[in-house]
Amino acid sequence: MRAAVIDRAGAEPRYGDFPEPEPVTGESLSRIRAAGLHPLVRSLAAGAHYGSEGVYPLVPGIDGVGTASDGVLRYLGLVRAPWGTFAERVAARLGIPLPPGADPEVIAGTLNPGMSSWLPLRSHVREGKDMGTVVVLGATGIAGRLAVQNALALGAERVVGIGRDEARLADVRALGAQAVRLADRPSAIVSALDGASPSLILDFLWGSAAEQLWSALAAKGFDEKPDHTVHVEIGALAGASAALPAALLRSRAFTVRGSGAGSASLAEIMAELPVFMERVARVEVSAPIEVFPLSRIAEAWAYRGPRRVVVVPD
Ligand SMILES: NC(=O)c1ccc[n+]([C@@H]2O[C@H](COP(=O)([O-])OP(=O)(O)OC[C@H]3O[C@@H](n4cnc5c(N)ncnc54)[C@H](OP(=O)(O)O)[C@@H]3O)[C@@H](O)[C@H]2O)c1
Which atom of ligand 1 is nearest to the CA of 145? Predict the structure, then answer.
């Protein structure tokens, strides 16, 4: 079959031939309609993610939309390496029917980045925690912009979106968040919070960006109010490590946890995927996509614009 093929860690993908996957028990063979080029796809392909298996050559792509022999459009995932969704066909363990009328390309581009905030937000609501103010650290990316929309839809009274790109922060503002530039002093974060303590931080950056936010939150004074904040680590684009100030842990009830493959429960993901997919299908939440044919995979891979790349077989 025709596929995007990566020959070794760090290599660019080429459009070529790759052996057809043969489904094993629990997998179904599907014809791919669309697959999203998410940051995870790049880091897995480069061998740089904790989930990388180091088997090359490989076909990149972790999820997508396709049809099995029954012709039903399904959201597909859980694909066995070295196969992936940037190909004509895939054998996948996960297959969830799309809601009627859903656009396969939009679903392929939106589910991975959107679910990254939907899951922690929904568990925050389920645990009966107050939503109040939500901070999105790294709000200018696709996952960040979807996080702003998800937080507002799930009852956040105020969303503070933090990012580094001024033009893209204007988009964040247009979605209803208060936007803060990372380059500004921590006091800019303090004034955007306007005395409120965030109940939830959705963090796509970690590293120095998380440190900057923590230093703003640690300057709390002797206020006796028992502020509970949950910091959810989702991405690490600003650094793999971050130093957590002791004062932050003493000055409020502060919990740090992660959300990703391995920490989010599969049962929870399975329960929430159809709910979020329905919202995407009804255009209650959206992110811009840019569609490329599979034969132009080199161009798709090189794209670094503000849209989520979606690859479709020729
Ligand atoms: N754990 C999970 O389940 C899960 C799921 C989805 C995504 N993620 C992760 O979440 C992160 C964001 O994903 P995405 O889909 O939103 O990616 P994206 O659309 O490529 O956006 C990345 C954003 O991060 C910004 N950025 C990059 N480096 C930065 C830095 N050093 N300081 C400040 N901003 C920086 C970029 O800003 P500029 O515009 O200024 O370049 C861009 O707006 C990725 O690491 C991804 O792997 C995790």
Answer: 16
> Which residue type occupies 30?
S
DSSP string, 190-259: HHHHTT--EEEEEES--HHHHHHHHHHHH--TT-----EEEEEE---TT-S--PPPHHHHHHSEEEEEE-
Domains and CATH numbers, the chain: 2-99+283-312 (3.90.180.10), 113-258 (3.40.50.720)
Indicate whether 152 pLDDT > 90: yes
Neighbours of 82 (CB within 10 A): 18
Ligand 1 centroid distance, CA of 24 (Å): 34
Instruction: Please check the confidence at residue 221 and state whether its pLDDT lies above 80.
Output: no
Is the CB–ligand 1 distance for residue 182 below 6 Å? yes
CA of 287 to the centre of ligand 1 (A): 14
Q: Is 4 in the pocket of ligand 1 (CB under 6 A)?
A: no
β-partners of residue 198 are 132, 133
Q: Given ligand 1 and candidates 115, 208, 237, which is best to mutate, with the most ligand atoms within 8 Å of its CB?
A: 237
Which of 310, 280, 274, 292 lies closest to 94, judged by CA? 274
CA-closest residue to ligand 1 atom 44? 235
- pLDDT-derived band at 226, boundaries 50, 70, 90: low
In angstroms, what is the span from residue 108 Cα to ligand 1's centroid? Answer: 17
Distance of alpha carbon 131 from alpha carbon 199, whole angstroms: 6
